[in-house]
């Protein structure tokens, strides 16, 4: 996407690998001969931390759009199937994450901007969150009905007796095609708001970096990540 002087300069890196939980992963620091590929260094400033938080929101919204779009391929993913239900859950969770409080405190998408997109945006945004809450967060609601019963021997039988227990369940398993298409359009527009913000956020990060001596920048260490383990589910992230 070209935007004149404000054209995007970010090099996105999506790396998927398996490593032991808690291990440190250093980006771009592999052994071998010199490469012509750009070097990556860790730049830690208020501008760069805002950039990282905005990127996280942008990637969640892009993921939500991708998951919803996959639901339109009923040839590969039949409506109501396990995969279809899982994709819908993933999309709703990813979208809702962008509007909850947490460690992305340096960047948040102002809900007023979403509401200003058109007259129905406010109601639709809250509807998406309500679907997420009803479908995922709350186990007893109109999206899930469980009716207990008893199995009895036929009335015409010579022996009347209780044979066992019965359970009837009705649950929400997905959206209609037109609802999915509408959700894709809406979430894509929200994604575009964040994408537009990133132009200025990237510029601010680059301005802060270029204000420093270039030798100081080249002396910075490569980025490091600590892989996440399941036992961290109940621990807050410390910054």
How would you describe this structure to a colleague?
It is a single chain. This protein is mainly α and about 240 residues long. It has six helices and four strands. The protein has helices at about 45-70, 80-95, 110-115, 120-135, 175-210, 215-220; strands spanning about 25, 145-150, 160-170, 225. The strands form two sheets. Strands 1-4 form a two-stranded antiparallel sheet. Helix 1 runs antiparallel to helix 2, helix 1 (about 45-70) packs antiparallel against helix 5 (about 175-210) and helix 2 (about 80-95) crosses helix 4. It is elongated, with a radius of gyration of 25 Å.
Provide tags for this entry:
single chain; 239 residues; mainly alpha; two-stranded antiparallel ribbon; two-stranded antiparallel sheet; 6 helices; elongated; disordered N terminus
Uncertain residue ranges = 1-11, 13-19
Largest sheet: 2 strands, antiparallel
**DSSP helical segment count:** 6
Kindly report how far apart the N and C termini lie: 33 Å
User: Going across the major beta sheet, what is the strand order?
Assistant: 1-4
Task: Give the helix/strand layout.
Elements: E1 24-26, H1 46-70, H2 82-97, H3 111-115, H4 121-137, E2 144-152, E3 162-171, H5 177-210, H6 214-218, E4 224-226
Antiparallel strand pairs: 1-4, 2-3
Helix pairs in contact: 1-2, 1-5, 2-4
